[in-house]
Design brief:
This protein is of the alpha/beta class and 394 residues long. It folds into 2 domains: 216 residues, Rossmann fold (3-Layer(aba) Sandwich), CATH 3.40.50.2000; 163 residues, Rossmann fold (3-Layer(aba) Sandwich), CATH 3.40.50.2000. The chain has 18 helices and 16 strands. It has an 8-stranded mixed β-sheet with strand order 3-4-2-1-7-8-9-10. Strand 7, helix 3 and strand 8 form a beta-alpha-beta unit. It is globular.
Length: 394
């Protein structure tokens, strides 16, 4: 198949969207498909042997490391030249909306992968009245997709409640070699917690939408050493509030594998996770998890089996759950033994094979886009014969 991926972010920006797109590209390369990527900002010219086309982007003033793409006629041009069988929209918002419009005009079916809780993100930054506008915009994009893939059962229910049609469940895979209890390092543990403390770790962006302001409450627990992996706009304030915590900064590759496997407890403070890859990676590394009972973690954390869930609006119960595991070595050992087994079936290979089946299904269907595009929708072969019309309105 020929797959065009239009993504809201890509390398060098590292996040859940980028990670998923990279794993999909690697799978497509291994299995003999053709692909290309359209993404905002400066980045590599290729990945896994596939070309990357870039579009204009700007940085958010309150989050300089986060780039937002801008609509561009380059998207239509790139799709016309590549002639895809399917368009994969990775967390479509702005660039993805342009990709959806271009796909509809060209008569190419689109698979939209919902990945970011934009309404929750906005609320964490004080934009509490934006929910209706955000969901209205997301509906505008997703009603034109041949299929929308939701990463978790909780997200799927929310999408359904907001009128998003043609939903299917598609989770995220995990690299079981990279995230493995075998990477646990006693040498590293002595460096991180020289007094033998229980290591409670967090891995992720240090930003308001991840509610990292809750971490200082854990640093006060007796016998606990908080270890923070990641970077973001909240890093400076967290360092000031947790002078005794260990801040590792952004880590990747074997360094991240070793640090994560060396935790005793993994804590996730966010409450707006559509999936939460960090939780899955911790489980694969054999680390029991404490996470909010909301969104993606509901599918991953089985209370008393591989971790604990706390009410999303209760920092006190999060602290109590961490304190309980920190003080109960037997419970940690039992949950650690169950953690990896709980995600063994969630490999990227299996998930990407499932994704390709979605591609094949929508490519074989005679899908009609939303009525606003019906007047200009024609089959792909007809569009090829009318190249000048395809540029209309771009």
């Amino acid at each position: 198949m020929r797959v065009a991926i239009v993504s809201e972010s890509f390398l060098p920006q590292v996040n859940g969207v980028t990670n998923s797109v990279c794993r999909v590209l690697e799978h497509l390369a291994r299995t003999g498909h053709e692909a290309m990527v359209i993404a905002p900002g400066r980045g590599p010219s290729d990945y896994a042997g596939f070309p990357i086309r870039t579009t204009p982007a700007f940085r958010l003033p309150f989050y300089r490391s986060f780039r937002v793409g801008l609509p561009s006629g380059e998207i239509m041009t790139a799709l016309e030249e590549f002639k895809p069988d399917v368009v994969h929209l990775a967390s479509p918002t702005v660039v993805g909306a342009s990709g959806m419009t271009a796909a509809a005009r060209l008569g190419v079916p689109a698979v939209a992968v919902f990945q970011t809780d934009l309404a929750g993100f906005a609320r964490q930054y004080g934009m509490r009245g934006a929910d209706a506008a955000i969901w209205g915009w997301l509906r505008h994009i997703h009603v034109r997709a041949a299929r929308t893939l939701a990463p978790s059962s909780a997200t799927m229910s929310e999408l359904n409640a907001h009128g998003i049609p043609r939903l299917s469940l598609w989770g995220r895979g995990v690299d079981l070699q990279r995230f493995n209890p075998g990477h646990r390092s006693e040498r590293l543990r002595r460096e991180l917690a020289p007094n033998g403390e229980v290591i409670v770790g967090y891995v992720g962006r240090l930003a308001a939408d991840k509610r990292v302001h809750l971490l200082p409450g854990l640093a006060e627990l007796p016998g606990v050493k908080v270890v923070v992996v990641g970077d973001g706009p909240a890093a400076k304030s967290l360092r000031r509030r947790m002078p005794d915590a260990v801040f590792c900064g952004l880590r990747t590759g074997t360094e991240l594998s070793e640090i994560l496997a060396s935790f005793d407890v993994f804590v996730h403070t966010g409450a707006n996770e559509t999936y939460c890859q960090a939780v899955q990676e911790a489980l694969a590394a054999g680390v029991p998890v404490v996470a909010a009972a909301a969104g993606g973690p509901l599918d991953l954390v089985q209370p008393e089996h591989n971790g604990l869930l706390y009410p999303a609006d209760s920092p006190e119960e999060m602290r109590a759950a961490v304190a309980r595991l920190a003080s109960d070595e037997d419970a940690r050992t039992r949950m650690s033994g169950n953690a990896r087994a709980s995600v063994l079936h969630r490999t990227w290979s299996a998930l990407c094979e499932q994704l390709v089946r979605h591609y094949e299904t929508v490519s074989s269907e005679d899908f009609q886009p939303h009525e606003e595009d019906l007047g200009r929708w024609k089959p792909w072969k007809a569009r090829v014969a009318e190249p000048s019309e395809a540029h209309a309105g771009t």
